[in-house]
Amino acid sequence: MKDSCVVDVYGGVRASVKIILLGPPGSGKGTQGIILSKELEIPEISTGDMLRQAVAEKSALGQQVGEIINQGCLVPDDLIISVIEERISRVDCGKGFILDGFPRTIEQGEALEKVLPDSVDVVIYFNVSSEAVVARLAGRLTCRKCGAVFPIMDTSLCTVCGGDLYQREDDMTSTVLRRLKLYREHTEPLVAFYRDKNKLAEIDGEGSVEDIAQRVEEGIAQVLA
Ligand code: AMP
Fold first, then answer.
1. Closest ligand 1 atom, CA of 46?
2. Long-range contacts for 142-147 (Cβ within 8 Å, ≥24 apart)?
């Protein structure tokens, strides 16, 4: 029987593991995050999914961020930092978590370091060309319920949870280019930030889902070794 107090991370048993998935929009972080979450039995936390849910529920947060998201801009650091601080303090994060879409600026990375007494354990950086990203985002549908993504025409319902699929407004080409520009300016500097801390595993983010999952596993094992 599996010990419910530890997390078995590719051959090494630990009390917890905190993983960040870093890369441009459409680099496959969400898809790999869902796979990792099932394997490691720790939550995958997507700030984009959390914000879209807040918009759908028309909560106070949702009303603040709806327009910003649709335009492909970044929501203010202090707002998203307080959202993530509250989320990772919940009991389901006791054995760690996988962050998808946070941090997205150096300020957010520094805030996370302050909140976590012993820092994050591994940062997986998905290296994907801008051309591949634009093609993927413009050609994908997203599940309204669980956030899984599928190529357009592949299926009309989510094969993970049965939810409806739709094209995100911020996946339209003009908005994608803005998101990519913001990524290069504000998020990419986090690659050096975590490399300097010896937490970074850079992987080739192009190829099949299975091949990339294998690279993610090897990257995690390498950084934790
Ligand atoms: P994503 O699903 O990760 O592509 O996020 C969708 C949108 O949510 C982004 O384009 C931003 O508007 C917003 N967002 C998500 N995470 C963050 C973050 N860490 N910082 C600022 N804005 C964010």
1. 3
2. 142/166, 142/167, 142/168, 142/171, 144/56, 146/34, 147/30, 147/34, 147/46, 147/48, 147/49, 147/52
